[in-house]
Amino acid sequence: MCRLFALTSHDPVSPMMAIKALDVMKEGHDGSGMGLMLQGLGGPFEEMKEAPILSGIFTEEGIRKLDLFMMDQGFLTKYKISLKTPKTQVEGIPKRNLYLIRAYELPEGWDPLSQEEIAERLMMTRLKIREMGEEKKDMMVFSFWPDTIMIKEIGDPMQLADYLGLDRKELSARIIMAQGRQNTNYAINLYACHPFFIKGYCTMTNGENTAFTPIRDFLSSRGFPGYVGYESDSEVFAHILHYSMVGLGLGIDAYKHVITPLQDDDLQKHPDREFLGHLKRTCRPLIIDGPNCVIGTLPDHSLFMVQDRKKLRPGVVGGRPGL
Amino acid sequence: MSSNRSLEPSSLSLNDLPWQIRYNNDRCTLCGQCTAVCPVKAIELKVFQKRIIKTSVQPEKGHTNDYDSFYGIRQKTRVENACIGCAMCTLVCPNDAIAPVKNPGLDRLKFHINQNGIPRRRGGRRNSSDSILDRIKFIRISMLTDPALDAGRHEFEMRTLLGRVLSPRENMKRLKEKGWIPPVREIYPLIIGGMSFGALSPTMWEGLQMGVAYLNEELSMPVRICTGEGGCPPRLLRSRFLKYVILQIASGYFGWDEIIHAIPHMKEDPCAIEIKYGQGAKPGDGGLLMWHKVNKLIAAIRGVPPGVSLPSPPTHQTQYSIEESVAKMILSMSMAWGFRVPVYPKISASSTSLAVLNNLARNDYASGLAIDGEDGGTGAAYAVSMDHMGHPIASCIRDNYLNLTKIGKQNEIPIFAGGGVGKNGNLSANAAALIMLGASGVQIGKYAMQAAAGCVGTEEDRCNVCNLGICPKGITSQDPRLYRRLDPEDVAQRIVDLFVSFDTELKKIVAPLGRSTSLPIGMSDALGIDDYAAAERLSIKYGV
Predict the structure, then answer these.
(1) pLDDT at residue A182, rounded to an integer
(2) Cβ neighbours of B382 (radius 10 Å)
(3) What is the CATH architecture of B156-525?
(4) How close does chain B come to A258, measured CA to CA in Å?
(5) Nearest-CA distance from A308 to chain B in Å?
(6) Secondary structure class of B272 (helix, strand, coil)
């Protein structure tokens, strides 16, 4: 079973808190990977909220290609964290060259651009780097966005945390999403690892999306360059979120009605039935037909959880002041 | 025939006929029911001669003969009386003394069935039981990560949309600005396709309508039925049941005078208007109701004189092209009902169907596209059209759906598939396969006749005399002596049986795939086939 954990905190906390929570939920074999998303960063990143941070995994050749490309685009490195791994390999964790977390100065020419245009260009830059790494598998990029770090790797979450040294003090955040990934249904591929990120919208999922193929076909045909990938049936959740909020200009409350609309009888009793009826009809190919539990964050750093009604996937919401 | 007579070219022996009567004289009581019921008068009561040789053990007495006669059933061998294999004789025989048997060899009737220069015309459909749909399997079964659903206990929403669905963005914009949003009906994905009043007998039509009304009003299943090209009885037009009916207009415009004049009196809008441009059984050919069936009632409903054949032209004569149809006919029909009723064309499957689809995609008033494949049935057509013309439905639906996904309109124009769905009895599996290939729903015709009224037609050229008005089951006859064999109440009951059992089977297919909250349109990852070329062609998995 996939394990999900998300937290928000008044003060930045170490990602280890989330990873330990995953470990508590561990049942059976669960070592095919972990994904982490950190936002509201503390430590050195606290002072550079506007700087986009590139998160990914690179080989030596990949990093050279990246540096050339980024310089060519006019990006200057502002700060970086290098996750150095121990020399002794741990079984179940592949050997990599470099886990990159690097904040960039925006190119000078971007100064007059609107926030929207900058966001678009950041996404296109991420997609370009991903594309450049496709052939030789020497560059893998998970996000390129301000105040956002993503770490993904194959292996048992606790072992990975030790291996990558995730308890270091430079790494702390106010929002942490963590997913311990089982991924039994598709080949292990880091691009299939949750959470998924697109322009500040980020989701991770427990469950299986049986309507994946028609949803993928629908998103792919929207003419939006970011709707690509789909190594996992869960990536569509992040893209549907982006589509319903940005593409359709709807609120987060509508996301639930897009992916898991009310049944007709309930719809007829709803005070907003006309709108919801039209939403159900026009967004019909986006109905997920789970069962799924989706946890995600929005660009304003608010956190949400949504579940479909089919077979409830357990999700618990709670906390105490400050955490 | 005597051995020293001359032969006619079309003199056939029993061995030349496709169906041969096996008759057991020992069991026959000579009641005459078989000869009375035979729709083509293939059998008759005859006197046969019998010679009994009496031999003697005493040579001096010699051997003697006795001649005797007896009565029995003889099969005629004339072309017009060739047995059609309907087996009504078997059905009525009280002693199981008679049955038609398919000629295991090659019959020769085919070479002679064009007497007087008229090629064979018949009802039924393509004489081939091949079915690519039957070979498609549902291979993506939800197992550990998402256990399969319980088909018997889970809730399912297996409805589809008939009508133009705008893109989400455009729809929300028009909703906000109170603009026109095209009408959309939420209906059951299995539709009874167009079979006209005229092609079908009054009892059959009434039974179908009653069954549909019952499904809607008692079982809350929004099943819809299309009239076919033959108009609609005036009382139905003015009744509340019209909302379950799709009115069809075709190139003969039969019955449309009556329909147009009834519009001001209609209590309900019809479900939709289907503009028939083509039919899978005889693509590129018009409808045909032969004179045998045009009695006073049919003539009155269609607005034509009785006793004349009614061949519809192959295309709408007032139109020049499909572009013009989209522009004019769809708009005129929409306008007639105040833009409250979906209007969509029906075409025969063709390698040119994408051109039609692309045209419709650009027109907000086009509510869908029905495509009828080569295995579709008909009440009357030239055999050559039925057997050799047309395009298989599976690849045509797939091409059209994939084309829609390419332009991002897969949810906007529903495609309905018809033509041989369930031809070998596998209705729900065929329907589910077509839906997963991209159809929003399926239309059935002949299956409904077979299941709800006991039509005996097969792809082995059995019966198939729908065109002549002599349907032995009374399904396609306008002769009261024949159609009174069919009780409309029984037909209605069987229609209900058909849909209720289909619904259970559909759930039995989608539940293991983990689907319940929406019809799995385009869920092609669930499909597999044991033919590599077919898998490639349909963009589904190859599974052996």
Answers:
(1) 58
(2) 18
(3) Alpha-Beta Barrel (3.20)
(4) 11
(5) 10
(6) strand
